[in-house]
Design a protein that fits this description.
By secondary structure, the chain is an alpha/beta fold. The chain contains seven helices and five strands. A five-stranded parallel β-sheet has the order 4-3-2-1-5.
Length: 174
């Protein structure tokens, strides 16, 4: 997906979101990962928050894979019921990253790299990092370095800081 693809995206109403949540929950799923596109107009923080409130009624864990946000937005979504946020990081090679994101807000490397820290500061108990597709020699060195940086934030006792895990079943919001 990129900004040049002509893809019609559906934006679900509150009723449609609730219906989808019911159907997914009836299948036996206890966790859900909700995704949005990069459009803040189509999927505002308030819209995502309402979806989190609905999801919390049906699921034990509610995850988000959404556009990057500030601390206050992550805090709001956590208060609405989100348990974690995932950030897909294509590469930790800054030069390679610049070739993948040529324009727009995704182009800003530090803001993307520091997203998990902002999620933690917003109260998300376990931000999740999803390593990306670009193979490189130091592929795991940098995620481990990032985890060490996050460890310095010292979450409350008993809470996990970072989970590296496989994606869960997903639900596209907008």
């Amino acid at each position: 997906f990129n900004c040049y693809n002509d893809i019609h995206r559906l934006q679900l109403s509150k009723e449609e979101i609730e219906h989808e949540m019911q159907v997914i929950a009836q299948s036996g799923m206890e966790e859900i990962l909700m995704l949005t596109g990069e459009s803040k107009e189509k999927s505002s923080v308030a819209y995502i928050g309402e979806a989190c409130k609905l999801a919390r009624k049906y699921f034990r864990n509610v995850g988000l894979e959404v556009y990057l946000m500030n601390v206050a937005d992550y805090r709001y979504l956590h208060e609405c019921g989100a348990d974690y946020v995932t950030v897909f990081q294509e590469t930790y090679d800054v030069k390679k990253y610049e070739t993948l994101h040529l324009m727009g807000h995704k182009r800003v490397w530090p803001y993307r790299f520091e997203a998990q820290e902002r999620a933690l500061m917003g109260g998300m108990p376990w931000p999740v990092h999803l390593p990306g597709m670009v193979r490189q020699r130091r592929g795991l060195v940098q995620p481990v370095g990032q985890a060490k940086q996050l460890m310095a934030l010292r979450p409350p006792a008993g809470q996990q800081l970072v989970k590296l895990r496989q994606p869960r079943p997903t639900f596209q919001l907008g």
